[in-house]
Amino acid sequence: AEEEKQPCIRLFIKNENGTIVAVDQNFKPYLYVVADEPTKVVKAIDKLQMEEENRTIKPESVGLANRTFLGQDVKAIKVTFDNPKDMAPLRHVMRSIRGVKEIYEFDIQPARRYLIDSDLVPMGGISFSGDVVEKNGVKTVLLDKPPAPT
Question: What pLDDT is stored for residue 20 in this prediction?
């Protein structure tokens, strides 16, 4: 289906007028890699590419990020993906790169990651904006920016 090509996050929002589906097509799943020599490993990860299910998968972006893991300040590598399905196969390849010590946050489901990053709480208030489309009697909002808690 058309929707399969571009992964997105769907939020089902109830208000006094019924249910609205808010769709965010801009969220990209990610994980962090800790390595002995982060600058070298960034270059190696950035070059990763593999074929799976008749398509080429590779990281969408790779960059350095300051993080705290287990109370330690660390220069980590943030690896972002276009599709959540790409994380597992590429993560296994990343483990084999010389200098990679650990991979973090790969096991956080995209929906949960989205809630965490947006500071949203299930059943909590939310504010959002975007283009409204009605599809099969369901009001859908294509978000123009991530929602915010209220």
Answer: 93
- C-alpha span between 145 and 26 (Å, rounded): 8
Closest by CA to 141, choosing from 1, 5, 8, 4, is 8
Sheet bearing 100-104, strands edge to edge = 61-69, 72-80, 30-35, 100-104
CB 93 within 8 A of CB 103: no
Provide the domain count of the chain: 2
H helix runs in the chain, sequence order = 2-5, 38-46, 87-95, 110-117
Q: Kindly state whether residues 13 and 53 are assigned to the same domain.
A: no
For residue 8, the tally of other CB atoms under 10 A from its CB is 14
Coil, helix or strand for 130?
strand
- pLDDT tens digits, one per residue of 58-97: 999 999 999 998 899 999 999 999 999 999 999 999 999 9
pLDDT profile of the chain (150 residues), mean per 10: 68 90 95 97 97 93 95 96 94 97 96 96 93 90 94
Report DSSP state, residue 60.
S
| Structural tokens at position 117 | 């990053």
- 38 and 93 in a single domain? The answer is yes
